[in-house]
Amino acid sequence: MTETLAADPTTVTAPTAKKRRGRRRLRLWVPVGVLTAMLAAAYFAPLPHDPTEPLADTLAAPDGDYWMGTDKFGIDVFSRLVASAGVDIPLAVSGMSISLVIGVLLGLAALHRGPWGERLVRALDVFQAFPLLILAVALVALMGNKIENVVIAIAIINVPRFVRLVRSEGLTIRESRYVEAAHAIGATGRRVMFRHVLPNMTGIILAQASLAVAHSIVVIASLSFLGIGINAADPSWGAMIQTGAQNITTGQWWVAVFPGLAIFLTVLCFNAISDQLQDSFGRARQR
């Protein structure tokens, strides 16, 4: 009679858990590394050509001299593509950072019991009923066609996201036992908010911040495509697509396709970071 040996759970689950942690870290650090490389190249890498100066060859196809070809003005597409990362990504991050600070503070303020929080949420519902891209175009048009106003517009359209997120998460955390215990020992409302409620929603806020940057990249590209906000002479992915859009039908696809791929890759990276942060936050709350 043969005996069946029971597998030791630690010998089975420990390597599997370690592999899963390794894969999760890889899924987080690969997009972080890609974005870091893009910014490092934009700020520090020697470019083969000036991203703003036209060359003699216009609409040249990709080759050894021009890795991604040139546009109708003779500007090297690769050099301008790399330089655009140093403009679009910092703009998106700057606008998101402003909206994060304002949105978190308003969201925490809306947690106080009373009609004020509900009224704020209802006002934000009305605000978010407008298409955000059209709203961003209107804001920049009203404030003036300047790059600083693009940052302000990005901040304004992202504030409601953070307010609603912080308030909804805060309403759940506020009913936790450790929050009730903090109130029981005499902690002030401000101390409870900043020492007990806010730290326990940091993960989901960071995940939303990464998602907001991805959305902001698309909005900035759309604005520059329309010729709004960013100076036409400054590198920008949206302006590059606008420059090359009319040449796609005549066979010069590289002028618009490469910046479009850059936007896709950047948005994909920020979305991947957001997914991993949400996953990590969800597992931490289950423990």
UniProtKB/TrEMBL annotation:
Keyword set includes Flavoprotein: no
Keyword tags: Cell membrane, Membrane, Transmembrane, Transmembrane helix, Transport
ABC transmembrane type-1 domain ranges (all copies): 85-274
Entry keyword annotation includes Nucleotide-binding: no
Primary subcellular site in the record, as a coarse category: membrane
PROSITE patterns: ABC_TM1
Cell location: Cell membrane
Cited Pfam families: BPD_transp_1
Membrane topology: Multi-pass membrane protein
Segments traversing the membrane: 28-45, 89-111, 123-144, 150-167, 203-233, 253-273
Family listed: Belongs to the binding-protein-dependent transport system permease family.
Listed name of the protein: ABC transporter permease
Organism per entry: Luedemannella helvata
Lineage: Bacteria, Bacillati, Actinomycetota, Actinomycetes, Micromonosporales
